[in-house]
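hiii so my PI (J.) wants the whole complex modelled not just the main chain, which honestly fair. so below is everything: two entries, each one labled with what it is. i double checked the lines twice but i was tired so who knows lol
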Amino acid sequence: MRKVLAVIRREFVERVRTRMFWVMALLGPVFFGALIFLPILMSRASGVKKVAVVDGTTDSTGAQVVTALVATRAVFPTRVPAGSGVVDSLTREVGAKRLDGFLILTDALVDSGKAEYRASNVSAFATNAAIEGTLSLVANAVRLERAGVNPRVVAASHIRIDMDTKKISGTRTTGENAAQSFSLAYFMAIILYMSILLYGVNVMSSVLEEKTTRIVEVLISSLRPFQLMLGKLLGVGAVSLFQFLIWGVSARALISQRAKLFGPDSMQDAGQVFQMPSVSLETAFVFIAYFLGGFLLYSSMYAAVGAISSSEQEARQAQQPVNFMLIISFMAMFAILNDPGSQLAVTLSLIPFSAPIAMPVRWAAGNLPWQEVALSLGILAVTIIGVTWVAARIYRVGILMTGKRPSMKEMIRWVRAG
Amino acid sequence: MTDSILVVDRVTKRFAGHTAVDELSLEVPAGVIYGLLGPNGAGKTTTIRMIMNILLPDSGSVRLFGGGGTAREYAGRIGFLPEERGLYPKMRVLDVLTFLAEVKGLDRRVARAKSSDWLNRLGLEDWALHKVRDLSKGMQQKVQFIATMLHEPDLVLLDEPFGGLDPVNADMLLETVLDLKRRGKTILFSTHIMEQAEKLCDQLCIIARGKKLVDGSLAHVKETHGGRHVTVSFDGAQGNSAAVFADRRLVAKVQDFGPYAELELAQGADAQEILRALVGSGARLSRFELTAPSLHKIFVDLVGPDAVTAVAHEKGAPAHA
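here's the output for the full assembly
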């Protein structure tokens, strides 16, 4: 055991000593924050769109739309009367990037709710939503007025709705709203994915280093291969926990001091989609449990990958299947968030290879019975034992092997051989 | 023999249809320097790996310290220098040494103190806190030797220890090995350089193509396999010495280098008779000396020129036989 401890200590000390570790420790939160907020900021900060409104309406509806669009501040509209050749010349303008797009209005807007928007980019959701909302508002108003409703009543009938969502956790309604649940799930999925990948690959390079420097022969004559692998997994695992501890402590300090640091309403401005979720003790437990499970599962596979490769390039190739499983689990997050109780979500959170990301996401989305968590953790634990056993056998032969990478058939033979 | 510290009993190792080591048996008594000699690809490294339990023999057994148990269980009593050297390039010298000693079962503090001692002894004290990769190749080799000897093993296995050493480090290693022997340790080393073996070995074993050709003490090997040799140097005139050399009743084999020649006496021949014959042939001699053959010569005679061909048929397994 003392020998394993020496391996654990080496892995831990050598890693914590690197500049990379402290860069990650200090800049990690910034990095994750950027990863989360940048896409939102970028989608919002796409700027005010220059849009022409081709007004083919026979009344003042077109003018009303232009006025209403100005008020959205999402688009900057210019009214162009409809005429022959207008559409063609505007299309050229868009092509030359002097214009973002143009809206074609006819009486059909009010009569049957039809309009057309042509633009170089029709997937800018914020712009589309602003235009669509405005059109529907104006069309409604015009139809109501035509039906004889007093324009003042129509104006007064407009009210903006802010729907407040509250999550039911167990039988108790928490203060947490949907946005917080979403951001918690998102945070956890990203951090789990990145960390399992990062530290798994760390284990792999460590195995590879010992193999390529041939120091492994000296080690193997003093330690069992399994002791060496175990020491590596635990050592690197300890580094990752230390990293989380640093992040946790600094995040806590930052949140408690945020009023002093950024002024009292800084958090309101931070964005409505992402809000600071409250991280309960249970959530922290679920996160750590699944992180450790995922780390052990994946890094023992990465250890085997390191053992069968004899260079960085080879390892990069050989690790693809393992990466792939992790990426699928991460991608599935969006489907799970959409419906955390669906057949797919439940299945993914029970399959041990996707559970480390899928289950915490479901947990964050809410209202998960403990039995299900326990079942998934149980399956995960059994799988870890199985996978580690197989990985250790591949590792044992692989680390002493040089030359060509073994075929699947050879590896199966290694696993079977006593 | 009961005082044998290492017994290799008819071990065989095959790699993909090629036999690297074939029914090889060795016995290394305590307190000697034992040379495992053979050309490249003879199976030296494979044998040492089997002794170290890095490879499992297909058949046969290895017994250490007169008991059961593998090398791993005796890790604290064995020092092992593999053929291919390597250290953690990014670790500090002192930390690498401490770690490698800890893995062999030494207490951390003891390991650290001993590492410092050794670094001082070999003049590397200023490098203790440098990273391994900052050291020159020669210094890295010294560090590697320290790692092998640090825990004061009773049995030291050195695989091609002189490979790639500069003369200064080679001498240092030679001294270290002799010092270990003086302190009662047992050393087994492999080499294909016979000059080194001749200087160091008490006992030796020559193998080729995985098979043992001869073993025993150096003197015994020379006696039984060297034959009797005469070195002759001419002082100008060689007379009709060629006829004498060609006389198979007197001379079994000759290597004629011109100004001098090495003769192997024929069975039952008397050296004095050759001397008489040479003088009679009109040759003028500056030297006529009965010599023991060099280990090099025995080696070449035994192994033959074609023994080096068995190399590198190994695939899908540790590649160095």
